[in-house]
Specification:
By secondary structure, this protein is α/β, with parallel strands linked by helices. It contains 8 helices and 7 strands. Helix content is 46%, strand content 15%.
C-alpha cells in the first residue's frame, strides 16, 4: 500500500531536527510539498537542500510568532504539530519558567497554529488532516518529566476537542504517541543505561522507536488510507502501554 500525498501542501512544525525532520523527509517522499517550520535557520537551510521544502523561521514560545508563521504558510492541506521540548526537573524542583516554556511550545503553539490552518481549510471547503505528535508520557507518569507529561496529557485532550469540533468540516485530527524515540532529545533524556534499562524492560518489543517508524505512522494518518480514522490517540510504543 503506497501512501500518495501528491498535490498536498503539508506544514510540519519542529522540522529542523529529530522526528520532525524525518516526517518532513517521509512526506516529501510521498509526494507532498512540505513547508518546514523551525527556530534554527541552519537546520532549515540544510533541510531545504536535502528535500526541496519551503521554510519558515519561527520561535513558537511566542504566540505572536506562532500565529505569524501559520499565516505565512499559505494554503495548507496537511498539518503536523510536531514541535516539542522537554525539561528534566523533579516535581519539587520544576520551575515556573521551564513549565511555562514547555507548555507554550507543546500545547499553546498547537492551538494557535491549528486555529489558523483549520480556518483556511474550512474557508476552502476541501477538508484536511492534522496530526499532533504527542507521547506515551501523556498517560504514564515519568520521573523528572513534570512539565513534559503535563503538556502531552493536555495535547491529547486538545486533539480530542479538535476532532469533535473540526470533524463536521471534514478535517480529520489524530494524535500519535511514540515511546522513547532515538532522537537527540531522546538520547539526552534516556542515554544513561541505568535509566533506559528499566524503561526498555517495560516495552514488550524490547526496543525504543526510531524516527522513521514514527514518521511513517504520521504519513499514514494524513493519507486517504486513514480516511475514517479520526480522534484517535495512536501509540507507537512497542506495546509499552499494554504493560
Amino acid at each position: 500500500m503506497d501512501i500518495n500525498l501528491r498535490g498536498k501542501r503539508a506544514l510540519v512544525t519542529g522540522a529542523g531536527k529529530g522526528i520532525g525532520r524525518e516526517i518532513a523527509a517521509v512526506l516529501t517522499e510521498c509526494g507532498a510539498q512540505v513547508v518546514a517550520l523551525s527556530r534554527t535557520q541552519a537546520d532549515l537551510d540544510s533541510l531545504k537542500a536535502e528535500i526541496g521544502c519551503e521554510t519558515i523561521l519561527a520561535d513558537l514560545t511566542s504566540a505572536y510568532d506562532a500565529r505569524r508563521a501559520a499565516e505565512s504558510a499559505g494554503e495548507i492541506d496537511l498539518l503536523v504539530n510536531n514541535a516539542g521540548i522537554t525539561s528534566l526537573q523533579p516535581f519539587l524542583e520544576t520551575t515556573l519558567e521551564a513549565f511555562d516554556e514547555v507548555l507554550a511550545i507543546n500545547v499553546r503553539a498547537v492551538l494557535v497554529i491549528s486555529q489558523v490552518i483549520a480556518r483556511g481549510m474550512i474557508a476552502r471547503g476541501h477538508g484536511g488532516a492534522i496530526v499532533n505528535v504527542s507521547s506515551t508520557a501523556s498517560s504514564v507518569a515519568l520521573r523528572d518529566h513534570t512539565s513534559y507529561c503535563t503538556s502531552k496529557g493536555a495535547l491529547d485532550q486538545l486533539t480530542r476537542v479538535m476532532a469533535l469540533e473540526l470533524g463536521p468540516h471534514q478535517i480529520r485530527v489524530n494524535s500519535i504517541n511514540p515511546t522513547v524515540t532515538l532522537t537527540p532529545m531522546g538520547e539526552m533524556a534516556w542515554g544513561d543505561p541505568a535509566k533506559s534499562g528499566p524503561m526498555l524492560a517495560r516495552i514488550p518489543l524490547g526496543r525504543f522507536a526510531k524516527p522513521r517508524q514514527v514518521a511513517e505512522a504520521v504519513a499514514y494518518l494524513l493519507s486517504d488510507q486513514a480516511d475514517m480514522i479520526h480522534g484517535a490517540i495512536l501509540p507507537v510504543d512497542g506495546g509499552f502501554l499494554t504493560t
